[in-house]
Design a protein that fits this description.
Elements (H helix, E strand, L loop, with lengths): L60 E2 L4 H9 L3 E3 L11 E3 L3 E7 L6 E7 L10 H5 L6 E5 L5 E9 L4 E8 L2 E10 L2 E10 L5 E5 L23 E4 L5 E6 L5 E9 L2 E9 L5 H13 L2 H16 L3 E3 L3 H17 L22 E2 L3 H6 L1 H4 L7 H8 L1 H6 L15 E2 L18 H16 L2 H20 L3 E2 L5 E2 L17 H21 L6 H10 L5 E2 L2 E2 L34 H13 L6 H13 L3 H12 L21 H14 E2 L5 E3 L10 E8 L3 E8 L2 E9 L5 E4 L6 E5 L7 E5 L2 E4 L6 E6 L6 E2 L12 E2 L1
Parallel strand pairs: 1-33, 2-34, 24-28
Antiparallel strand pairs: 2-7, 3-4, 4-5, 5-6, 6-11, 7-8, 8-9, 9-10, 10-15, 12-13, 13-14, 14-15, 16-25, 17-18, 19-20, 21-22, 23-24, 25-26, 26-27, 27-32, 28-31, 29-32, 30-31
Helix pairs in contact: 5-17, 10-11, 11-12, 12-13, 15-16, 15-17, 16-17
Length: about 775
């Protein structure tokens, strides 16, 4: 049976409030002072008691410590093809956070296409907007041109090695190939048998916005100049693409024996630096084998940072593919993901969208313990001057913002509240950066990025808050992202972000030891800000604007998820949460994939794992209008990467949550999933959680503290508990009620929590109880 809270249960005896994410309940919940009482030891079973004999040190028996174990496990998650993919959303995909390639049949031809696209390649003419002037630009594609007609393929995309391998059978023989991308080099090793030959052709593509599929260029737009080609003295071919707005893209490629190596460089404002960059990358690569060694070393270390296994084969495989995908699409220090990722195809979305997409793209990096992929925090840190320049001149002395869509430098102006503009997107993106801080407890990130940028983002709002006749502070008209009505006053999207921002700034100032002159103003806003507009159906879009037509975004529910300002630990709000999410999905027609993943995560917050998985499965239902595709990518008139990645976050929310200063282990596991293993799942407070669920019951939880933060653990265990530090001595604990323990866990130490006799502390894959076909075209 799934361990789930009773939706009718009374208010918990004590509440634990440790972060801005849970601060909404502070005034409503009694008994918080109890958390300040001295910690005491929870009664343990005899084996955990020092009085019963010498302490018994313990340690996990992790079966996933060897390359062989990982190779075997991940082989079961690989994508397979026995048919030639004919579309980008059917084929294999490769990437290193910058360079990306998708592999599928050349449309209308007997060839295999390897797309060549790069996350830094964009136009530089902001006067034409993000859709045309600063959009991602195409680079080109390679084709493998066989002699005979293609009969079949046998391909495997190995997650463990991040490598495509396999054969192409034709009427003339067989081609055998391997392909990978590393250090901005696409490397392919190909051989031929029979009468086949290996023939490669590079096809440059016009440097024009992929948005051309849906609209004409804006007035005054002129095309970029044509590319030119040259051959270097060592036989390397180069395609050089100058840009009207300045800058250059250079593609260099050479064939040495059976190896083809290709690299892309992009420079701005330099009109020539890309040429040298692309050649330098090729020289580093030297050969397929040499590059592959560095490549596999990186990926093998990447996967071993965390582990999750659960008994649904197709969803388990999907989850591991998303980790492969996000690491292929983003790395800290690099460009933030565009909505299409690094795999550019004809699309209306060749830019960065800030009103939902960018946030969903990066959520799963936290729990999976992969903060090294956080290019969003990098983008906010590196482009603070641009964020200032995005607001109207009159507000640049103290404010920042970003418009709905931008290039990788966040170059897009934001409108003024009162004009119906969408103004909250930067604040929501900062919530992602805050999550990275909370999962790392990296004060440099808080001090140098989150605090100064959030301070300016909230300041922009404060210029427009005005008192009404009710004595409350009100916000003039702003847009609730993508809700198609005249923008209302007091939009719930913005009210939630203002509340979260002010609370987070107050908490951050305390953490950083700052006596900020604006603290009284933030406190006043929290005390006087108008309540969220609500009607009989739950949260409205804004004042006098009910949720009355189908809406794919959940922007009007942001206070529930992901901000958790209104949450399930507040019994007085449970009915409001339930009817709000029910009404949101009752009005159908506009729902898209992330509508289902968002509903799944909200239901996971309530502890209802079976409803959560029901919503999540809608994303995979081929009967819906916009389902997950064969290679786990997703399309709405073009590639949109955020939704599959957010589906993995929905799984995270079912397995472990850490909002409000409390870590919740297995809070909403689907009742069909009797067995689940988590290992080194990262939570807020910089804890690593390992936990095993067997036959529907939690067997043990291990917590490692990386930062020495207060630990409050909602464990889901029954009976007498054993709570032991890593040396076998009992930990100092305090029972906070509602199945929650406060545990004194110093930095660098571990604690084991279980009931009954000590279980086998084994970390291993669980048996599959729900078999499923491999992803791809098996």
């Amino acid at each position: 049976m799934t361990s789930q809270p009773d939706k009718r249960s009374p208010m918990p005896r004590r509440a634990v409030l440790g972060t801005a994410l849970g601060g909404a309940a502070a005034a409503a919940l009694p008994g918080t002072a109890h958390a300040e009482e001295p910690l005491r030891t929870v009664p343990s079973v005899a084996e955990g008691s020092v009085a019963g004999g010498a302490a018994r040190p313990w340690r996990l028996r992790d079966t996933m410590t060897t390359d062989g174990a990982w190779a075997r496990f991940l082989r079961g998650q690989d994508l397979l093809w026995s048919r030639l993919p004919t579309r980008w959303y059917e084929g294999p995909f490769l990437g290193d956070g910058l360079l990306g390639s998708m592999v599928y049949q050349e449309p209308g031809a007997n060839r295999i296409r390897f797309t060549v696209q790069h996350g830094r390649v964009q136009d530089h003419r902001p006067e034409f907007g993000s859709g045309w002037g600063t959009c991602r630009l195409p680079v080109g594609h390679l084709t493998l041109d066989p002699v005979g007609h293609i009969v079949s393929v046998d391909w495997r995309l190995s997650l463990w090695d991040a490598e495509l391998t396999g054969t192409v059978t034709t009427t003339a023989g067989e081609l055998t190939l391997s392909a990978l991308i590393h250090e901005e080099v696409l490397a392919v090793h190909a051989t031929a048998d029979g009468d086949e030959r290996v023939v490669w052709t590079f096809h440059p593509e016009e440097a024009i916005s992929p948005r051309k599929i849906s609209e004409a260029p804006p007035a005054g737009y002129t095309a970029n100049p044509p590319w030119t080609t040259r051959t270097t003295p060592d036989g390397t071919e180069q395609v050089l693409q100058p840009l009207t707005g300045g800058g250059q893209t250079a593609t260099a490629y050479r064939r040495t024996g059976d190896d083809l190596l290709l690299s892309v460089g992009h420079s701005f404002p330099s009109d020539t630096a890309a040429e040298a960059d692309s050649l330098r990358s090729l020289r580093r690569a030297t050969s397929y084998g040499a590059l592959r060694r560095r490549h596999t070393n990186w990926w093998h270390a990447f996967y071993q940072k965390s582990f999750v296994s659960f008994p649904d084969q197709r969803l388990q495989s999907f989850h591991w593919i998303q980790l492969y995908k996000v690491a292929s699409a983003s790395r800290a220090g690099g460009p933030v993901m565009a909505t299409c990722g690094p795999w550019l195809e004809p699309t209306p979305w060749p830019a960065v969208w800030w009103n939902l997409n960018i946030q969903l793209e990066y959520w799963l990096i936290h729990g999976s313990n992969h903060l090294e992929l956080d290019a969003l925090a990098t983008t906010l840190r590196q482009n603070q001057e641009q964020l200032i320049a995005n607001v109207p001149v009159a507000y640049r002395s103290d404010s920042s913002g970003v418009g709905r869509s931008s290039d990788m430098f966040a170059n897009r102006s934001v409108g003024r509240p009162g004009t119906g503009a969408e103004t909250g997107d930067l604040t929501w993106a900062l919530h992602n950066a805050w999550l990275s801080y909370r999962h790392s407890m990296d004060k440099a990130l808080l001090r140098d990025t989150i605090y100064p940028v959030l301070r300016r983002a909230i300041n922009y709002y404060l210029h427009f808050l005005t008192p009404g006749s009710d004595g409350r502070l009100h916000l003039p008209s702003t847009l609730s992202p993508e809700y198609p009505v005249v923008p209302p006053q007091d939009t719930n999207y913005d009210l939630a972000l203002i509340r979260w921002g002010c609370r987070t700034l107050i908490e951050s100032a305390e953490l950083l030891g700052l006596d900020d002159e604006l603290i009284p103003r933030w406190q006043e806003v929290l005390a006087r800000l108008t309540p969220y507009p609500v009607d009989d159906n739950g949260f409205m879009i804004g004042a006098d604007t009910p949720y009355a037509q189908s809406h794919r975004h959940y922007s009007h529910l942001l206070m529930v998820y992901p901000l958790y300002l209104v949450n399930w630990d507040q019994p007085e709000n449970r009915d409001l949460i339930t009817k709000s999410v029910t009404h949101w999905h009752a009005l159908t027609g506009a729902h898209r994939g992330y509508s289902y993943t968002g509903a799944a995560s909200i239901h996971a917050m309530t502890g209802d794992g079976d409803t959560a998985i029901t919503y999540l499965r809608k994303f995979f239902d081929t009967g819906t209008r916009y389902p997950c595709q064969a290679n786990t990518h997703y399309t709405e008139a073009g590639p949109v990467i955020e939704t599959p990645l957010s589906a993995s976050q929905s799984l995270h929310d079912m397995f472990c949550q850490s909002w409000g200063g409390v870590i919740r282990v297995f809070p909403a596991v689907a009742s069909d999933w009797a067995d689940v293993t988590l290992h080194n799942f990262r939570t807020q407070g910089a804890f690593l959680i390992s936990a095993v669920r067997e036959a529907g019951e939690t067997r043990f939880i291990r917590v490692r503290s990386l930062a020495g933060e207060p630990l409050k653990l909602r464990h889901g265990l029954g009976g007498a508990l054993t709570v032991l530090l890593d040396d076998g001595t009992p930990a100092r604990t305090d029972d906070l009620g509602d199945g929650t323990l406060a545990i004194d866990l110093p930095r660098g130490r571990e604690v084991l929590v279980h009931s009954g006799s000590r279980p086998d502390l084994v970390i291993a894959p669980v048996a599959v109880s729900e078999p499923g076909a491999a992803w791809g075209l098996p």
